Amino acid sequence: MAFNEFIYTVMIKENHLDTFGHVNNAAYLTLYEEARWDFITKNGYGLEVIQNEKKGPVVLDVNLRFKRELKNRQVIKIHSQSLDMSSKIMKMRQVMVNEAGEVASEALFTFGFMDMQLRRLVEMPEQWLRAVT
After folding, report:
1. Cβ–Cβ contacts within 10 Å for residue 59, how many?
2. CB-based burial of residue 133 (10 Å sphere; 0-12 exposed, 13-18 middle, 19+ buried)?
3. Cα(55)–Cα(28) distance, rounded to whole angstroms?
4. 99: alpha, beta or left, given left = phi > 0 and alpha = psi -120 to 50?
5. What is the CB neighbour count within 10 angstroms for residue 74?
6. Model confidence pLDDT, tens digit, residues 38-50
7. What does the alpha-carbon distance between residue 92 and residue 66 come to, in Å, rounded to a whole number?
8. What is the Rg, in whole angstroms, of the alpha carbon atoms belonging to the chain?
C-alpha cells in the first residue's frame, strides 16, 4: 500500500540554533512535530479532535540522524510519510531537505494510538488513518 507524502516548508530561525550557529539537536524533534501537527490538522485530526475524543498518537520510539548542518534563515522542506501500520502501531519516516535538495536529517518514528482515559494503546480509528495516509 502506498501512502501519501506530506511536505511542510519552514524557515530556520534563531530560536532553533545552538551556540555553534546551527540547529540544536532537540530543535529537530520540535520541527518534525510541527510538520506532523500541520498535516494532521489539515487532514481533520488536529488538537481539537484529539482533546474531544481523548485519543491520539504517542511517540514510542524515534531514530534520528543528522546528515548536514542547517543554519539560520535557511528554508527547508520536511517530508513526512507513513510507512506501515498495524491496528495500534504505525511507523512514519520524516526527512528534512535543504534548499539544495540535500537530506539534512532523517527520522523514523514509531507511534502508538492511545486512549487517554484507558491509558493504553487502542485500535486506530478511520478518521486518524485518513489523516496520516
Report:
1. 14
2. middle
3. 25
4. alpha
5. 19
6. 999 999 999 999 9
7. 17
8. 15
Domain ranges, ordered by start, for the chain: 5-132
Q: What are phi and psi of 80, to 5 degrees?
A: -125, 135
In single-letter form, the type of residue at position 76 comes to I
Answer whether 10's CB lies under 8 Å from 76's CB: yes
**pLDDT at position 16 over 70:** yes
**% of the chain residues with pLDDT over 70:** 99
Residue 19 corresponds to which amino acid?
T
Residues 53-80, mean pLDDT to the nearest whole number: 97
Query: Is 127 within 8 Å of 88 (Cβ atoms)?
Result: no
**Annotation: CATH topology of 5-132:** Thiol Ester Dehydrase; Chain A (3.10.129)
Residue with cell 519552514: 10
Mean pLDDT of 88-96: 97
Question: How far apart (Å, rounded) are the C-alpha atoms in residues 115 and 130?
Answer: 18
Spatial neighbors of 5 by CB under 8 A, at least 6 apart, are 79, 80, 81
